[in-house]
Design goal:
binds fe (ii) ion, 8 helices, single chain, 7-stranded antiparallel β-sheet, 18 strands, alpha+beta, 386 residues, 8-stranded antiparallel β-sheet, Naphthalene 1,2-dioxygenase Alpha Subunit, Chain A, domain 1, binds FE2/S2 (inorganic) cluster
């Protein structure tokens, strides 16, 4: 990607530096600290703006066993709260719906959509400071219709954290804000459990060194050596052209209507976004550790409100089947193979292969991830030191 402001310079090093030590992918105390000090304190994708359009619209969600909800306030502001009542801790809302007020099902304390306590049986404003008894709020931000939250009390806005990311997304997909969620199938096959550490999955996402070997059909469709990975503060961008072959081993492409250049982003630590080749689309994924060696990849796929052409639904179906049955299975198998391998006693850590002449084989984006992770470790992971 040429002339990109704010991109990070990278050194041309080959096989000169080591990857993260295996123990960071294996140890349950590492995972617990990641949850508390990294994932709970970073921007997490949770849903789409179209689910909370009107005042009172809400949906609930969980991040790492912590429960939250988002609600549209009467003034139009999208607000996020912990899904817990300040009185005695009962859960406030379930599922998705619309409420003028939020009433706790236990003792009926009632809150406005702005989170303020409005009424509590047996208590009056004369005696009690209602201001102190409001809901516990979390930061909310929106990029091109995608809703993120950050439970940290000192969250910086997403546009400050990842400057230029939204602009790149909208340059790649100018009508992204009008796209609608596609919840009909397992589009791209990405919503699944993988028996590997979440960082193994991010590592795998951030390099295409494995593509020629491990994804023969994808490799036949794509022009892998023309891939370019560009590094930015807290995120990366991959430009991945196809060979522009209507008929290829993966799925048919319509050269007039389809995405012919894949574009993929990763947002530190555990979010990926992108536009896969094929019918017009955009997707976003969140990688949630369940165990040190088990991860849930949650994906929301988006598509234009109306198909671009009469053949789009069938091409979409063919891609969906291929992504679920071929490439996602291949990647899952690779990640699970790595997880088993790094648990072997003889393996301590790996090596980066970086080659700035050929981003089709270079692992510098993965190295960027590890650099940010190591910065976080330096600040929070002293308990893991040798
Ligand atoms: S726990 Fe909610 S009103 Fe008592
Ligand atoms: Fe892959």
């Amino acid at each position: 990607m040429e002339n990109v402001p704010n991109s990070l310079a990278v050194k041309n090093v080959a096989l000169s530096e080591r990857t993260l030590e295996a123990r960071y992918y294996l140890d349950s105390s590492v995972m617990k600290t990641e949850q508390q000090d990294l994932l709970y304190r970073s921007w997490q994708f949770v849903g789409h703006i179209s689910d909370v359009i009107s005042p009172g619209d809400y949906f609930t969600f969980s991040l790492q066993n912590q429960d939250y909800f988002l609600v549209r306030d009467t003034d139009g502001t999208l607000r996020g709260y912990a899904n817990v009542c300040p009185h005695r801790g009962h859960r406030l809302l379930d599922g998705q719906g619309t409420r003028a007020r939020i009433t706790c099902p236990y003792h009926a304390w009632t809150f406005g959509l702005d989170g303020a306590l409005r009424g509590a049986k047996g208590m009056s404003r004369r005696d009690v400071d209602f201001e102190k008894l409001g809901l516990i709020s979390i930061a909310v931000d929106i990029l091109a219709g995608l809703v993120f939250v950050n439970p940290s009390s000192d969250a910086v806005p997403l546009r400050t954290y990842a400057p230029g990311l939204e602009g790149q997304m909208l340059r790649a997909c100018s009508d992204l804000e009008s796209y609608v969620p596609d919840r009909e199938g397992e589009e791209f096959g990405h919503t699944y459990i993988c028996r590997s550490n979440w960082k193994v999955m991010i590592d795998n996402y951030l390099e295409c060194y494995h593509c020629q070997m491990a994804h023969p059909e994808f490799n036949e469709m794509m022009a892998i050596p023309e891939s370019v990975f560009t590094l930015f503060p807290n995120f990366t961008y991959q430009n991945a052209p196809t060979k522009k072959k209507a008929q290829n081993l993966a799925f048919p492409l319509d050269l007039d209507h389809d995405v012919l250049v894949g574009e993929f982003w990763w947002l530190f630590p555990n979010i990926t976004l992108g536009r896969f080749p094929g019918t017009q689309n955009f997707y976003v994924s969140r990688f949630d550790p369940l165990k040190p060696d088990e991860t849930s990849r949650f994906t929301l796929s988006l598509k234009p409100a109306t198909p671009t052409d009469a053949g789009a639904p069938e091409r979409d179906r063919l891609r969906s089947v291929w992504t679920a049955e071929v490439v996602a299975k291949e990647d899952r198998s690779l990640c699970e193979g790595v997880q088993r391998g790094i648990a072997q006693k003889g393996f301590k850590q790996g090596w980066y292969v970086t080659n700035f002449e050929d981003h089709g084989i270079s692992e510098h984006a993965m190295q960027h991830f590890h650099g940010l992770y190591r910065q976080w470790l330096a600040a929070h992971g002293s308990r893991f030191a040798d």
